């Protein structure tokens, strides 16, 4: 018998409601001088949800937010679902043209805009007006130092519902109803709009607590942008554990060290750029840590040099892997205690693997994308990395065709190319689109990049295939050197020759800044175009 | 779009399948000289499931197990669901007549019977035969020292499926399908048969990991009988975390201390009888602990004396509360860090509260059972404790009427009487049926028992109402003294008078052993009958 006594649709809203009781007077959020308790955060989210409903927001509407990791962005993770609506966080790195395209796609009824990004929003609105696309209502998150604002501001919304005790939080009818939309970073194409469900968000939150061994009342530093998979679902997970969210408008090495020292941060996350920021801070930029800090990283394997530097400083790195379509991390390089005894290099090699599925993900496999057979579990045979489980997206928003394509064969096809080791751990070798096929051999660009990156003068590197009449393609490296360092093309090639089989060594080396996506990933398709252009010149 | 890529019915089977990869070579179970790894446990459960299917077990059939906390009982927690069937663990403390009644109720197709309990099973079968009730097939779990057995034995089942690579694990069609049947302890009536679902078991397992702050790879000592709510769902939770299950056929103080010392136990649980066993072990029975041990207790608030003794020894006690109908613990006395600074007595008072709902339980409330209004949150107003959430039972097996009654008003009615404090923590005062109404005043028998128990000579105490012509009822205490201690009726009454309001002091004091249910709880209904008989004599 299924009834209200024994069946409640899973939703992260339950986390906040429970924390308002269990962790009532504990600090929920810190941002500069601002402090809230869980009771206050719950109350503010309720009020905001009430104000949204008064403005006509109803079940299934989209509400967008263009803002960095500030308290308002955090609160909208609960307030929007509590109004029955779908949250869409927008990337502050986009320009007005891209913003207009994304807004046209998801058609939010309301968009919250941080004052720093008002120009981008207005620019997007202008473009949309010209194309006669209906505009969302704009609600400003104002500069706290600016006392007057002509647009409805965030705080006035909160104020108007102050005594609204009657408001009933809207809960999902079905736990598979959407809770948020997340755009992919657009490494290989324009951003795709991914739908998350209440069920997936709930289950992924619990998994992410368990995979980081997070106890109750953690202190979480927001170095992962909330726009990335809702901060890898930590926005909800921290509420579940009654933790403290430490927010930063801009992430800097100083901001990180100060936050860790002042608030006794226990957990944080970040792409390799964040790790580099910490390890390159230099003695003057560092502060001693009050305790060890668990850091989850993803996007690329952490480099051994960075790993050892950070471990020494007191950061414990866990390597995770996933995509926007898997709510952020879908696998984790689960650490086996006996590995602690291995030398640094062996440890780094093991930690570079993407690992095994977390508790909420049913299965990860490496398969032949045509036959759907698993490849040999020998760490050599390559195939496409595929996922299956409750923490895989519902689909692409209003795009049944792309959704069907992604789920062809009953698995989510990542487009990532990898291997599986005999122990069941996977290692991603490349995006399938990035793999270089040279003289019939597959070359992982990630492998070549790792070798180049290990050169002491190199700050970052991107490798792509360059068309070649004889071999089909040959490796072409783009790289940026560290400030005050120098290296020649020949030096880089010699360095690679000593460490890689001949066919994997770049035939072309170009020194220049790498083009990046809004989430900080290298735009390989832009590099490929450049590599092709080089050929045309030769 | 819901498909196999993004929707998998929640089931604890997933925990075992993942642990067979992630924790493959780690010890899953220890029992005397026996050791298994997670890979082996997974393989054994698969084989056993295959053997069950060959014997005609199919979706929805019941498979029972009459055995203590031995490896076989643990394995059946996975093997039976992996055959699509429903597990029913039977209490080894029942006699043949009760066993026959329970078997007739749940009608298992197969019953696994430990050699020590074969006589009880045969006795039950005889009774059932006489009543023409169909008998289940019996599979013996033999004495390892007895080489010949005429009944199909557990190990031969395992052996016959050794090379059965084709067997496909049966998974629930719907996550709300039943996974197990658990009988209530029968404190107030004959045992009721409670249905657990795959979904509830999955969610409660995750919650129980989080509420005990259990990291991955814990070492769990089985002092909670697996027959109690499938060991408070820890049977599944330990698989989720890749922990080590330390099994004991009989729980003794020596067994506990030896296990903790030899296997570095990190977690265990138990009713107050287990805590008493530890705290009464005496210096000779103790061994130094290799690390602190987290102990979850439930059934009754831990006594301050026991608490302080155990804390000193290295056991950290968490007080939880629940019923068979809530998969074991439904609330936990979540500890607030600032309480650490309070004196022992204040801490004990706080820890005696049953607390707040765990993460998997949606709501707990104290309500007027007629109006369904919440009582005042003042720690004084009494009402019925009620639950609502995904970790409330599906219902009573094949008993729609009792199920409807239990869920009347959309909440699960516990039949427990309690209060809610301003901070949202509940405290259970009594079973509603046990409350004594004397001269119009409600008397909590638990409160009176706690006072009597604090007397240094008292080993245990049970208080019930005794009919009284003037007052309706008066408190009547039954108690057992510690060996080598003495006390008179008058001494006990004086002791109570100094600590309780006059109307709560027992008017009658009886020295005798307390009648117990199969789960070790005092049979209050038996005491009430005795108390009534006293009146008839007077």
Automatic annotation (TrEMBL), chains A, B:
GO MF term (any one): ligase activity
Biological process per Gene Ontology, one example term: phenylpropanoid metabolic process
Listed pathway(s): Phytoalexin biosynthesis; 3,4',5-trihydroxystilbene biosynthesis; 3,4',5-trihydroxystilbene from trans-4-coumarate: step 1/2
Name the record gives this protein: 4-coumarate--CoA ligase
Family listed: Belongs to the ATP-dependent AMP-binding enzyme family.
Gene3D superfamilies in UniProt: 3.30.300.30, N-terminal domain of ligase-like (3.40.50.12780)
Taxon lineage: Eukaryota, Viridiplantae, Streptophyta, Embryophyta, Tracheophyta
Keywords: Fatty acid metabolism, Ligase, Lipid metabolism, Phenylpropanoid metabolism
InterPro entries according to UniProt: AMP-bd_C, AMP-bd_C_sf, AMP-binding_CS, AMP-dep_synth/lig_dom, ANL_N_sf
A Pfam family per the record: AMP-binding
Domain annotation AMP-binding enzyme C-terminal: ranges: 447-521
Ranges of residues in domain AMP-dependent synthetase/ligase: 16-397
Keyword Ligase appears in the UniProt entry: yes
